[in-house]
Specification:
GO terms for molecular function: phosphorelay response regulator activity; transcription cis-regulatory region binding. Pfam families: Response_reg, Trans_reg_C. Residues 147-243 bind DNA. This is Stage 0 sporulation protein A homolog. The chain has 247 residues and is of the alpha/beta class. The protein has two domains: 20-140, Response regulator (Rossmann fold, 3-Layer(aba) Sandwich); 147-241, Arc Repressor Mutant, subunit A (Orthogonal Bundle), CATH 1.10.10.10. 38% of the residues lie in helices and 24% in strands. The chain has eight helices and 13 strands. The strands form three sheets. A five-stranded antiparallel beta sheet has the order 1-7-8-9-10, covered by helices on one side. A five-stranded parallel beta sheet has the order 3-2-4-5-6, with helices on both faces. A three-stranded antiparallel beta sheet has the order 11-13-12. Helix 1 (31-43) links the parallel strand 2 and strand 3 (47-51). Helix 6 (175-186) crosses helix 8 (210-224) and helix 7 packs across helix 8 (210-224). The longest helix is centred in the middle third of the chain and has 16 residues, at 125-140. The chain starts with 11 loop residues before the first strand and ends in a 6-residue tail after the last strand.
């Protein structure tokens, strides 16, 4: 692809597509309970993914788009508390714990690790559905999620799946490269210093390795090809995504 216009202006256009269903990951080693939960969720219009142990739960969470996790505490391979702890290191996805225990200590431990709610066995499926709806309403603020597609010139970004396309061809970005691009897009016309980007993207206020930022910006620009001009260098300050008008 040849770059014919190196000086053109960039605008941002948001395209919203409504998704009708939330996806729930059910993590329960009792197959009958797991299957029954899936049946009731499907009847209520949810998508459902099933996992029967902690390892499978983590594998499916990392490979699928999940809106909420129903997570049993007593699981083979990796127990529910460890699954909760590992998920919370990378995501704030809502998690409702399923437990046969009603001890205050167990609940407090789960909440300390980041659980959003608890359901004690035996439970009614109506209660489970009601709790799911309540948590999603509280955390998502809406029963209908919207997937925002952001267009910048020939660049198209899916903010949910973290996919980026250039001229309808997917370009593969690393996590940090996507985080950089998405930060610029959501804060267009704002200049970020290297220190601020290290803090925001790398979650570190203490390191001063500005070459890390410069290297990632260079790699990101190379992958954006002819559209690399959307990310501007502000000499002596940092970087920004310059938008002159909304398309």
């Amino acid at each position: 692809m040849q770059c014919k216009d190196k000086t053109r202006n960039y605008g941002i256009r948001m395209v919203y597509m409504v998704e009708n269903k939330f996806t729930i990951l059910i993590v329960e080693d009792d197959e009958q309970i797991n299957d029954a939960l899936k049946i009731h969720l499907l009847k209520k219009g949810y998508n459902a993914i099933q996992a029967y142990d902690g390892k499978e739960a983590l594998d499916k969470f990392t490979s699928k788009m999940v809106d909420l996790i129903l997570l049993d505490i007593s699981l083979p391979e990796i127990d529910g508390m460890q699954v909760l702890k590992q998920v919370r290191t990378v995501s704030d996805v809502p998690i409702i714990m399923l437990t046969a225990f009603s001890k205050e200590y167990d609940k407090l431990k789960g909440f300390d690790l980041g659980a959003d709610d608890y359901i004690t066995k035996p439970f009614s499926f109506k209660e489970v559905i009601a709790r799911i709806q309540a948590v999603l309403n509280r955390v998502k603020k809406s029963n209908v999620p919207q997937t925002a597609y952001i267009n910048i010139g020939k660049i198209r970004i899916n903010s949910v799946t973290r996919e980026v396309f250039l001229d309808n061809t997917e370009i593969l970005l690393t996590k940090k490269e996507f985080d950089l691009l998405f930060t610029f897009v959501n804060n267009h016309n704002i200049t970020f210093s290297r220190e601020k980007l290290l803090e925001k993207i790398w979650n570190n206020k203490d390191i001063n390795d500005f070459r890390t930022v410069d290297t990632h910006i260079k790699q990101l620009r190379e992958k954006l090809g002819c559209e690399k001009g959307c990310i501007q260098t502000v000499w002596g300050v940092g970087y920004r995504l310059k938008v002159t008008k909304n398309e």
